[in-house]
Model the fold of this input.
Amino acid sequence: MKINIYIVDKKGKKELYEPLVEHYRKLCRPWAQVEVHEIFGKEIARAQDQGPAQAQKSYTQALERFRGSGYDIVLDPEGREVTSEAFAELLKDRQVVNFYIGGAYGFERSFVHTSDKSVSFGRITLSHKLVKVVLMEQIFRGLSIIHHHPYHK
Done:
């Protein structure tokens, strides 16, 4: 199984969050290859300065090329909140799963609606880097549930 995480975020603060991301990536290795792709460039930076609509459009344009190569799941505050067991079901029996974490302004509604699923980690606002860590932990937890590993208990 291959799991891709596409996140609209500037690279940085690796010393704070990257050890946790690496920790969960290592734990997932027996069951899945997990890759994190940080997407950010001058176009996105310019668009964010122009406002929310332009920023959302730039996120969609940057991430659209990765869609369609697997089961696409968008993290979205308006998405469905799921239990860890339901999250595991999203991963079960899939060859490729792509997760998308938007930029500061979230995604255009069309990007969310044309994805296979949208999931919310709650109504609170978290930094992108922290969401990436939470997602990595939930991926490991989901894989643990699928493979009857005791981590989930």
Remarks:
- The beta strands are 2-8, 33-39, 71-81, 96-101, 117-120.
